[in-house]
Amino acid sequence: MDKKIGFIGCGNMGKAILGGLIASGQVLPGNIWVYTPSPDKVDALREQYGINAAQSAQEVAQIADIVFGAVKPNVMLKVLGEVNSSLNKDTVVISIAAGITLDSLAKALGHDRKIIRAMPNTPALVNAGMTSITPNALVTSEDIADAVNIFRSFGLAEVVSETMIHPVVGVSGSAPAYVFMFIEAMADAAVLGGMPRKQAYQFAAQAVMGSAKMVLETGQHPGELKDMVCSPGGTTIEAVKVLEEKGFRAAVMEAVVKCMAKSEHLGKS
Ligand SMILES: NC(=O)C1=CN([C@@H]2O[C@H](COP(=O)(O)OP(=O)(O)OC[C@H]3O[C@@H](n4cnc5c(N)ncnc54)[C@H](O)[C@@H]3O)[C@@H](O)[C@H]2O)C=CC1
Ligand SMILES: O=C(O)[C@@H]1CCC=N1
């Protein structure tokens, strides 16, 4: 793609997208402009990736064809509002902020602006992201294809209606955090069993990745795949029984429901 890509804000998530995009070879580093208020951080990104360091958010807005707003939700509307007059007519603005609706973005940017609300996740950094994309009515099918291509260059991406955004945050945007906790807890137990810590993380993480791949690639029901592991009278069913007794599934469901509720709350405040 020869479009110019801009990042206003580039912390955990912006860097995951930037890193994924560059690793995919889809966009050359020379076609990427980044601004954050900390010049040291932008310089570090320039050294690591070879991107252009912008002096201001307005500079990014002037140059880029596609501008990522990758700042925290509480400053997103202010930051985008301040660069609005620097954007070109056809620039596509992609906000990745949790809880910031297309409607509020249009209020900050004007109702004639092409805007996409996207919800990526940090595994973008290792080419395994999952992103939802919700365009407003002004975004053309070509713009949508560009956005899908960008996000698919480092994982999977689906266009969804804005009503799906809260489940997306719950099951994907925020989900890596719960999975990391699961991996950490399994590894702690393996360490308790005498395994060196580094090896414990490797075994636990590979088990999670392989299991996820089985769900994605076999098309089999997760319950069926679980049953395949549980030998009669074996070790796994002992662990499964404890997880059921401790309310593992209910805890996960409740956590995701809380996450969705917070996403909805952010959208209203
Ligand atoms: N971290 C995650 O896993 C995910 C985060 N998001 C969304 O991504 C957005 C960013 O989150 P993180 O990357 O985690 O936050 P972060 O705090 O790591 O990064 C924020 C970035 O914005 C910059 N910044 C702060 N004020 C600014 C300003 N006035 N102008 C320009 N840049 C400014 C900071 O220097 C930093 O580079 C949030 O809106 C969040 O909802 C979405 C999906 C997943
Ligand atoms: O915790 C958050 O608010 C952001 C949105 C999805 C993941 N991190």
UniProtKB/TrEMBL annotation:
Name of the featured protein: Pyrroline-5-carboxylate reductase
Major subcellular location class: cytoplasm
Pathway annotation: Amino-acid biosynthesis; L-proline biosynthesis; L-proline from L-glutamate 5-semialdehyde: step 1/1
Subcellular location, record wording: Cytoplasm
UniProt keyword list: Amino-acid biosynthesis, Cytoplasm, NADP, Oxidoreductase, Proline biosynthesis
Function: Catalyzes the reduction of 1-pyrroline-5-carboxylate (PCA) to L-proline.
Family to which the UniProt record says this protein belongs: Belongs to the pyrroline-5-carboxylate reductase family.
InterPro entries the UniProt entry points to: 6-PGluconate_DH-like_C_sf, NAD(P)-bd_dom_sf, P5C_Rdtase_cat_N, P5CR-like_CS, P5CR_dimer, Pyrroline-COOH_reductase
Species of origin: Buttiauxella agrestis ATCC 33320
